[in-house]
Amino acid sequence: MELSNPITVWLVLGLLLMISEIIVPGGIVILLGAACIIVASSLALGIIDGFVQSMTLWFMASMVLLLSFRHVTQRLVGGDAHVANTDEEVDLYNQVATVKEAIGPGQQTGRIHCLGSDWTALGDGTEIKVGTKVRIICRDNIGFVVEPIIDSV
Description:
single chain, five-stranded mixed β-barrel, 4 helices, 5 strands, 41% helix, rod-shaped
């Protein structure tokens, strides 16, 4: 078996892609491998000849297979599906932060440290000193509106 033979190259590439579906599940790689097998078959039957025609057929066969059978292979093979919360406001609401730069009085902004980053913050109009623990109420553009946490003993 010669690897300089384009039929062999496409066949081996197709089989490798199809076997790699075990490592990379999701149903896409197996369809790309099937497109390689189609190209190898077309070369063997003399339907196409040459590199450009092989690549064109592979591209078209890949698109047709992906659009036609993606839902089938995904159902059979599976894959990871995770739906996370897309509303960042919900994740930030009620988070506790530490004041890094004094906030207030009035509309004067300061800085807080929350979730591993420093953020611009606006208070309730009173002065909030450095080191005070605050709770995030809402987001205001790229900053946060915060209120000081009152310790109840």
